[in-house]
Protein: Gliding motility-associated C-terminal domain-containing protein
Amino acid sequence: MQHTIRFLYLFLVIVFFSVTTYAQNLCTATISPSGTAYICNGTPLILTANEGVVNNDLKFRWFKDGQPIPGATNQTYNATGIGTYAVEVSSISNTCNPNTTDPGTRVELGPTLTRPDFTISPTGVQCSGIPYTFTIVGPNDPNVEYLWDFGDGTIGRGYEVNHAFNYFGTGTKSFSVTVVTASRGCRSQTSIAQTVTVNGGPNFTEADVTDSADFEVCIPKDSAISVKAKLFNNIVAASAAGITGYRVRWNPDDVNEVSYTPEQFDADSPIRNPTPFTTIGTHPISITAIGATCNTTITLQYEVSQKPTAGFQVSPPDGKKRLDPNQCVPVIVTPTDSAKGGNLTYKWAVLNNQGQPAGGFAYINNTSDTSAAPVFQFNEMGRFQVQQIVTNQCGSDTTSQSVLIAYPEVQLNADGPFCGPTTIKFSDQNVFYDANLGTEVPTSFRWIISGTSGATFINGTSANSKYPEISFPNVGEYKVSVSFANECGNSADVAQQGAGEITITVNEVPNAPIITTTGVSICSGESTDIKPTGPAGNTFIFYGSPTGGTPLDTAATYTTGPLSVSTTFYITTLSPNGCESTGARTPFAVTVLPPIANNTISQDQEVCQGSAPKLLSGTQPTGGDTNGYRYQWQLSTTGPNGTFATAPGVNNSRDYTPPVLQQNAWLRRLISSASCSGDTSNVVAITVTPRIAGGNITGDQQVCANEPVLPLIGSPLAGGTIQWRSSTVSATAGFTPATNINNEVNYEPGILNQSTWFRRYIISGGCVDSSNVVIVTVDQPVTNNTILADQSLCGGEQPAPLTGSGPQGGTLPLRYIWESSTTGATTGFAPAVGTNNTANYNPAVLTVTTWFRRGVISGTCDPNYSNVAQITVLPLITNNSINGTEPAVCENTAPKTITGSAPSGGNGTYTYLWESSITSATAAFAPAAGTNNTQNYTPPVISRTTWYRRTVISDNCTSISQTIEIKVNPLPPVPVVAANSVTTCLDSTATLVATGTGLTYQWFETPTGGNILFEGATFVTNRIAQSTTFYVQAVNQNQCVSPARTPVTVNVTSITASAGRDTTIIEGNTMELIGRGGVRYKWEPATGLNDPNVERPVASPTKTTTYKVTAFSEEGCAATDEVTITVIPRVLIVNTFSPNHDGINETWEIQRIENYPEATVEIFNRWGTKVFTSDIGYKKAWDGTYNGQDLPLATYYYIIRLDKISKPISGNVTLIR
Structure:
């Protein structure tokens, strides 16, 4: 029985192995095209099995919708109907087992595409390099692609494309342009070819231009950038023959180009940019060769570089983050590049702490060690050095930074050294904990203090506090360190030298300064020394205030500057280790006595010989020692700078009275106080003068008012100064210095207006004497002689009488004489005609302007004339006419300006008054509205027929113009529109309609003013991108415009479609697509969707598919978006293999697992022991061993995890030996 069971088991194993082997030796079966394909324009679709394979041992059988197609046994098949096609591939010699394609190819009917046509703009011949615009005739179909062939080796895509044809040489060249439309694999018939002809441009190429630096310049690091290119033109003579000049745009931002002649730009004459290049980088230089017909433009790239400077930063969160926030590693590090220099190439490296290349990291996101912006994935914890090497044509530079992965880090700072016992309260200002993307472990903080003893944690803190407060009571050095942990490790495990540790130094505080005296007194302007005597071995800090402030000096002795005010200085001790004594600063007072001031005496005197001078007064002095001043008056007879001696008499008082003097003398006062220097006053002079006699004068006389007085004659004098004095009071009082020249022997009084007394004074020093008195008697003039009044009249009018005032003064009886002049107000006067000797006067009729005055005669004095009265005779006003350009205006419209002629006549100065009437041309005129007093007149808005005229006034002359009439036409009504608000889609037009007949309608963008957009009742707008209000006005046959514009608002509604995020699924799974943004939807392609017209269809794609959703709004507006569903084939798992070292079926192969790079495989024996764990991606298949030893024949259990989100796959596999 046991033998039978063993045999049966062996038979089953052989059968199972045979089945497994058969399943693994299938024939290859593929179809081209795969997925979904289309039958285009009724032409059968050719399906090919195993395309590119020629193998006569293979045979084929085609299926449609799962059913064999009769007679379809060739390698190709012409599909003519809709359905799903598959092919079975088998071997005639049985070298492989039959295999049918799964999935097959889905065949659909493609669109019917019409032959396209297109237009070309412009239609004529253009120069080489100038683009043409090619536009498809008809609407743009979003489901169709337009493919262009320009006939010059290039192609294009789009409904409307621009393309420039290049041809260099003489004459013209033609190009044939065609276009086809394509959609879902189908193409239309090629369009009829159209020809484009271009004129050739100069044969001028980039190779013709060379640069002395070969277009690359290196600038030394940190040097100013100022580069000028030096370009040579090496164009051959044949190509240069037709070039008349060159234009160069040295900088793309330049508004203007620089022009050069061919002689200025050739192989021997270089050109240079007027403005140097001042930045690192590529500078495009555009050069245009100007031909007789066309131009050719080339662009050269001029590189300005600098010796590079390496630099980068790694800053969380963007520069450093965990791949999985819950895992310590991997950590993604993205450096931010700050290297400089231009045209850089990069080389990155990662080193360990020994400076050797490190492991445990990888470049990800398609970056490498030569990327400008690499992305590192660190898979191991620790400290690494990231190194950057940047290179360009100017050299290279290297920099590196330390990057800590996973472990936390702490930086500890503290001020110091400290003077005397100190307490440090640590906080986030001096302790910087970096959890390095992790989380602090609250119980992990550990502070260690070593060195000088006595330090304690205070105020409830401890060695395990995050921010402790520590007291350092003793002089000495303390070592303080701190460490902490995150979920990945402790900062102490990877701490750099000095990180997390500081030294606290506490120095001894010195005693206060010792000074033998507390102060000193000095005079103003003196200085003094301040010198403390202890404590020994220290220096001292001198301040100007008891607290705060900036030190004046730090020294053993401080010398003050010259002082003008009392000052207290304050001193502290400074030890050699920089500690300053505490407590109150030691004061030192310097008392400054102010200088003696306010020492002046007054004043200079002149005295007659033998007379006593007046008292000399002195001011009360200030400054010095105010307890008492000492005075001394001094006198000199040799001058103010001569020799001074003590003055006679009482000379030690504040004031001084000089004695009688016989000669000139000078005096001054000296004041002294305490020990300060004395002060000398100013000097005053006393001048002593000999006496002199005054002499006699003659000249009594009587004159009319305003008549010259004869000179007054004086007797000769022996010396002294003369001064004539006058008085209008009496012969004995009221004398003051006479006017005019009053210091000569004789005196001319001039013209006097009242009786006056005169006498002559002689002055010599302090001596004065006077002459006898003479009188000049003055007869008073006539006053109050005025006449009235000026007149202005037109020729032929009678003047009004001229009246005169009652004159006053003079000698009675008074006599009158009227005089007239026709030449002016100051000349040509003669007795007036008629009765001219009365107080008033009646002029006769005048024909010319005439001036009049009245003379009043008193005694024998000349007449006293009145003011002049002018009677102006004016010519009549002429040339007063007006002209209007509009016989009629629209209602409520202001007429144009009415012009008036320039009048003549009158006095040449004119006043205007415009008048209007709404009654008739002859009645009811009143001042016109608005500005009505200028030569021309602009009427305001009028609503009915109005007449206008102009009155011109010049002095007393008046003239009225003719009358003009302006009629008023009625306005059309405000337009009525079909709809005041319409709605349209984004970037679409709108149709606006104004109703009514007999009127013209004009459309605007503004409620008033602006330009006419369209004229007509129906207005189709341009495409609109945002809501806009348009305005329409009506115009009647009289060109009158409606009083207001009617607004019509076009509301633009937009829609944004969303198809969701791109997703990856495993073959055979489904995915719900989610559309957003509309009220209805259309999904394409419909293949694999349960319903293409719903918001959330379920997709079952058999291959990677991009779905496009079109979302429609309630208004019919549409928008599209796309989503790609990537389909990964399922893995094929066999459940047996035979690792018996015969070279066949040695490992457990899992087909298609290479599509899952994150896949892992675990295998367990029947007791649950894990015997195999794969690497990520199952790159090395299981060979049936465990710990290097072959496992026995048995059934094992597997768990396959394709990725981190898919459900694990489990099952069993049998190992056969």
Q: What stands out?
A: The mean pLDDT is 89. Helices lie at 2-24, 237-240. The longest helix spans residues 2-24. The CA atoms of residues 131 and 877 lie 74 Å apart.
